[in-house]
Amino acid sequence: MGDDGLDALLAGPPIGRRVRSxxxxxxxILTMPEDQQTVVNWLIRHYEATxxxxxxxxxxxxxxxxxxxxxxxxxxxxxxxxxRGACTYRVKLAPKSGRQMPTDVxxxxxxxxEQANVFISYSRRNKEFVQQLHxxxxxxxxxxxxxxxxxxxxxxxxxEIQLGIELADTFLFVISPDSVASKVCGQEIExxxxxxxxxxxxxxxxxxxxxxxPELARLNWxxxxxxxxxxxSFQRLLAALDQDLDYVRSHTRLLVxxxxxxxxxRDMSYLLRGADLDRANEHLAQGEKQEPHPTDLHHRYVxxxxxxxxxxxxxxxxxxxxxxxxxxxxxxxxxVVSVVAVGMGGISGLLLQRARQAQTQAELGHWQARxxxxxxxxxxxxxxDALLAATQAGVSWQRxxxxxxxxxxQAQTQAxxxxxxxxxxxxxxDDPPTTASADLPRLLQRSCAYLTENAATQFSxxxxxxxxxxx
Length: 471
Fold this sequence. Notes:
The protein is of the alpha/beta class. 61% of the residues lie in helices and 8% in strands. The chain contains 20 helices and nine strands. Helix 14 runs parallel beside helix 16, helix 16 packs antiparallel against helix 17 (383-399) and helix 17 (383-399) runs antiparallel to helix 18. The chain starts with a helix and ends with a helix.
């Protein structure tokens, strides 16, 4: 999307800042506080509302809503309309530019399309060809994001471009001497590479491979030069765009959630849980053999989610253990007096049974959380922490009632522990490798030997006290 005018603007001396006309842009929504985002998104969907109606729908205090609306009004993002004796608020959208970018992040992510959406990066000197390509892609029902503007019309233009790159399933780069020389096109490529987006190079004019960005130069190029037949090339392009789409879309969705977590100061409320965490772990496992590979941010986000899930299960396990201990203490007290025991024994037994059931569920949850954590730690090259988590999972598995220990769960537990042990043993040439055929008690015995021997050097006292699995 870069061009000479934009490159000159970026590279040249400082000039007077363009006064921004009031109005809301997509990038503004992404950078405003979460409560204000909620208010704005609701107003966009429902066109207008009074503070009282908005407070009722959001289940917020009216004064809280009024304060947010006044702040948005002062920033020029909303305006008021007087009518029917009540003041209503509407969103004030910024003037429309030639930038075709996504307007609703989660609508894009929730869209269950069988066709990949595309971000096109190009030089404006090749605009006529890009318009032809854009029309052909849109005719197939695809979402296509492209910037037709020659220069940025506001200070948030780059945020909108970044959002388009982040949400796109595929980053399509139009290769020509002009685009290769463009500074802005280079920035767009770097943003796509940073997020490990799937890259598709389309050649409009020949350029020596050594002049092209290395991440594009190593790929198979699609040729749309003047001497090439457009339709056959376009059909090959469509096939490339939709290849492994489920995996690519999973990469995109996980990336956007990770970026949202990071932009909100790594707030725990943005972490993954349950089925979402399961899918994220599956994606990381797939990503070892598929492109685009997960980014470091993908790994950090899933690791933080797994750790939070494990810690939550630890706390629940402790709470259930305390409940069980209290029920046992109470049962001993009531059985001292036989009459009371006769009258309340059934109730005590029922409470004890429920406490044991809760303890079992907590133990099962703890096993699942530690399995998640061991997988992520192994994938992020943290062998000792992975061994600790896998051992914790193994101990929890053995504590479960036999009717809850499925063959599949047993195999998962042993596989996780075997992998963690193999990684540790690979660090020591003197130790024989652990075989996958070893049973769980022997694996646990071996892992506890490693953990105990290396506890002082590999783990803090706090980590050891939290849930040390070994006797």
